[in-house]
Amino acid sequence: MSSSLAGVQDNTIEDPTTRPTLVLGQNDFASVTDKVCRIAERGGATRAWKIAFTASVATTLMLFGMIVYLISTGVGVWGNNNPVGWAWPIVNFVFWVGIGHAGTLISAILYLFRQRWRTSINRFAEAMTIFAVICALVFPGIHVGRPWLAWWLFPLPYPQNMWPNFRSPLLWDVFAVGTYFTVSLLFWYVGLIPDIATIRDRATTKIRRVLYGFFALGWRGSHRHWHRYEVAYMILAALATPLVLSVHSVVSFDFATSQLPGWHTTIFPPYFVAGAIFSGFAMVLTLMIPCRTIFGMQDLVTMRHLENMCRILLATGMMVGYAYSIEFFIAWYSGNPYEGFTFLNRAFGPYAWAYWIMVSCNVVAPQFFWFKKIRTTPWMMVVVAIFVNIGMWFERFVITVTSLSRDFLPSSWAYFKPTTIDILTFTGSFGLFFSLFLLFCRFLPVVAISEVKAVMPQAHPHHHDDHQAHAEEARA
Amino acid sequence: MKVSPENIIELSERPPRLGEQAPALGRRALVVGCLLLIAGLGLGFSGHHGLAHVLHAWLVGATFVLSIALGGLFFVILQHLTAAGWSVVLRRQAEMLASLIPWAAALFLPLVVVTLLGHAELYPWADHAWAAADPVVSKKIGYLNGIFFTIRMALYFVVWYELTRWFVRNSVAQDRDGDPQRTVRMRRSAAPGMLVFALTSTFFAFDALMSLDPHWFSTIFGVYFFAGCAVAVFSTLILGSLALERGPLQRIVTVEHYHDLGKWLFGMVFFWGYIAFSQYVLIWYADIPEETIWYKHRLHGGWQYVSALLLFGHLLVPFAGLLSRHVKRNRAALGFWAVYMLVLHLADLLWLVNPTIGGHGESEGMVFGLTDLLLWLGLAVTSFGVFILRAQNQPLIPARDPRLDESLGFENQ
User: Fold this and answer.
1) Which of A16, A287, A343, B371 could be a cystine partner for A331, CB 3.0 to 4.6 Å?
2) Is the pLDDT of residue A166 over 90?
3) To the nearest whole angstrom, how far is the Cα of B277 from the nearest Cα of chain A?
């Protein structure tokens, strides 16, 4: 009895005889609904939200300003030079697409692996995924040189009979990211339907009732609805799983199908996927930890959830570290002087600072998660996660820029320096991300209410029998 | 089946073991396997390619056995790492498969000795004069030489043996004392264990398989080998469970476990395809001769049929075959796919190894015949015998694992 009481307080204790409780405190179905819905039902926005939203929108406007300036002036406003034709825009694109991986991993792959703890964090992570992919899509769009012709990327039949180059991985990217965005959005929306219906049913104003009612698609919670819902969810999970792998694999093809040392290496697809999950989880942790405190959701997003995310961060960080080491080893083993040079140049050349930032943030920083103390102390997790976010941006910078800046021909080597416009555009993309994210927190249920209920002990058919047994035990 | 507490108590007091006929079966397998090996060696040495062919066929067979053992080790570590509940009744089988590692080391011994003695029929770089004169290989002579190769091989096997021993010892000790803290300890060592496993199996793949063509290199190669190990072990676990379910594991292994094993097999078939495709498409696309030569050997002289067999037989056909839920829950169908995937896994290893007969990065075309089949079969059957003889020493399930009831009562949604 005492052990089960202790389990309620701290669900990070390793006890193989029982599974950890995923919802803490004195919660029942009603209190979970109430806790989550209240966040989206506040009459007026809080002061903190208003300040954050205003700042984010202002930053977004700066992004739009930068884009207008870019298009009206030309790509010369960026630091891109010859030979570094792919610089910050592509780095930012890969960075944001990577962040957009955690959501679908949590909702699809962890679902297939029956990781029940995913229910408290999947909604949040999926929303983040979608916003991150939106930010990502901005960059290739404005990088094409003549953005008003970006629609040529799509295979549209029109009189000039011009088709995109189907052999180019850049085109595969259009399809891969497009498909991923569509399926992620659908998946997120399907999961939202029962919860939107809950908010609709609790609505006190007409406008809320109509709007949430519209998006709830007439959900009534009947058996048939739930049956269809479960089937749809399972199919979407199965479809989304290969997409988690395919998107970043195709992004890696953008680099790896070339002949450039440092870009062309066969481990790129799985290595990019591991890196994407790594960066995505880091971003989930970075945002989740403050949010759970602000919204008072410590009972739903418990320490166990955070600890599990730290473990995934450690595991994927190791995979990234594995890829770095194998790349380095094979660069030497290949006996190819260009390969060897590229990697030595990364570690000791003019961009050595970026390389070592990458290694320290991505390989060294997650090692702290070997310690349970750090895996269970929120502020420490945030620090490590932010380091990982930084490190993963630098990884893409190192891959993209160091390889280009010094390729086969020393006479055409050049050092890349970003301009203020580069920096402000990237900063602006964070504004876009946070504006969307804050809207989500304000108007939608940030936790999947119906799914969390399913992992509560009350949902277990024998729950009440257990209660009786416990009561008898206590009496004895 | 519905598991009652009485069942579990009975299981932990009298855990299922192999039947009394097992030792005889094991010994018979050893005898038959040895006869097959003798026939294979005789045929091989009298053949046109002599020692070279024997060594390559032996490497395929030994790697096949090792890949199942390594897959077993991976399975055990993974279950502890993720604190899995569904798989507890299968874990002992995987532990016993991993316990084949010392035997696999014995199978690799002749290959290592031949290489250490400077015979270059298997690894061209073992010919020191040739290696020193080759403009590419001469740069990596510090890595690719008989002595360092032997040291590394010894290191891999010692590491795998120690890892296996740690997990098996704790698991078997738990059968006796039922201490749940052992489970906690095993979970704790699973994380560093996985790291060590990843690095050693990668470098083993580089050394034993990739260096057959010492000019060629591919960073994904370790992952490719790992994917093969995973396919092999899930197939083997399916077959092992099917065999044991007819006897001691009746009503312990259920259709729910097959369903999950089937999902894993399906997933790993797909993962193998993903890795194989990634490697191929990147090398094909960049079209750099020092890399494409490896595929050129495998797309000419008869090997193109094996390449096509792998694309269709190792990926597309089983993908379609294993997709359905009904197949994964049907013992006969799943058993068929398990045997099928083991055969295709052998074809994959053949495709990695035999095109390098001819030495020095050249290919002599399609060298494959009865020698290969006899040696593979001999190695597989003797290994089966060793497996049976070892497996009779302990119960067939971790009978007092704290999550045993979860596994016994496990149901897919």
Assistant:
1) A343
2) no
3) 10
Beta carbon pairs, A and B, within 8 Å: 91
Cα separation, B262 vs B296, in Å, equals 34
**pLDDT tens-digit map of B251-307:** 889 999 999 999 999 999 999 999 999 999 999 999 999 999 999 999 988 899 999
Confidence of residue A161 (pLDDT cuts 50, 70, 90): confident
Confidence at residue A37, expressed as pLDDT on a 0 to 100 scale: 85
Closest among A356, A337, A334 to A410, alpha carbons compared: A337
Closest-CA residue to A23 (of A404, A476, A464, A455):
A455
3-state percent breakdown (helix, strand, coil) of chain A, nearest 5: 75, 0, 25
The CA distance from B86 to B252, in Å, is 12
Q: How confident is the model at residue A353 (pLDDT cuts 50, 70, 90)?
A: very high
DSSP per residue, B196-208: HHHHHHHHHIIII
Interatomic CA distance for residues B244 and B248, integer angstroms: 6
Question: A188 with A130: CB under 8 angstroms?
Answer: yes
pLDDT of residue B413: 67
Burial class (CB in 10 A: 0-12, 13-18, 19+), B47: middle
- The predicted model gives B41-65 an average pLDDT of 91
Of the candidates A16, A259, A326, the beta carbon closest to that of B288 is on A259
Given this model, what pLDDT does residue A3 score? Answer: 40
Amino acid identity of residue A273, one-letter, is V
Burial B110-148 (b: 16+ CB within 10 A, else e): ebbebbeeebbbbbbbbbeebbeebebbebbeebbbbee
Let me know: does A118 contact A144? Beta carbons within 8 Å.
no
- What is the end-to-end Cα distance of chain A in Å, rounded? 12
- For A349, other C-beta atoms within 10 Å of its C-beta total 18
Q: What is the mean pLDDT of chain A?
A: 88
Q: A16–B137: do the CB atoms touch at under 8 Å?
A: no
Q: Which of 135-194 (A) contact B at CB < 8 A?
A: 169
> Does B362 touch chain A if contact means CB atoms closer than 8 Å?
no
- Is the per-residue pLDDT at B121 higher than 50? yes
Contact flag A266-B282 (C-beta cutoff 8 Å):
yes
Reported residue count of chain A is: 476
Residue A81 identity (one-letter amino acid): N
| Contact between residue A366 and residue A323 where contact means Cβ atoms under 8 Å apart | no
- Find the CB nearest A14 among B184, B206, B275: B184
Give the CA distances from residue A388 to residues A91, A362, A372, in Å, rounded to whole numbers and listed in that order: 15, 5, 18
Contact B282 A17 (CB under 8 A): no
Q: What is the largest CA-CA distance in chain A?
A: 87
A367, closest residue in chain B (CA to CA): B192
B325 touches chain A (CB under 8 A): no
**Cα separation, B197 vs B188, whole angstroms:** 15
Domain ranges in chain A are 37-147+179-459
pLDDT of residue A240: 87
Distance CA A51, CA A49 (A): 5
Please enumerate in sequence order all residues whose Cβ is within 8 A of that of A86, keeping only pairs 6 or more positions apart, or say none: A80, A400, A401, A404
**B195·A318 Cβ contact <8 A:** yes
- Tokens at B374, concatenated: 């006899």
**Per the structure block, which two tokens stand in for A15?**
């006890």
Check B184 against A16: CB less than 8 A apart: yes
Residue tagged 């890595």 (tokens) = B143
Can you tell me the distance from the alpha carbon of A27 to that of A456, in angstroms, rounded to the nearest whole number?
A: 9
Mapping DSSP to helix (H, G, I), strand (E, B) and coil, where does residue B403 land? coil
Q: Is the pLDDT of residue A467 over 80?
A: no
Confidence check: pLDDT of A7 > 60: no
The 3-state DSSP class for residue A406 equals coil
- Residue whose tokens read 């930012």: A92
Q: Where are any strands of DSSP class E within A310-457?
A: none
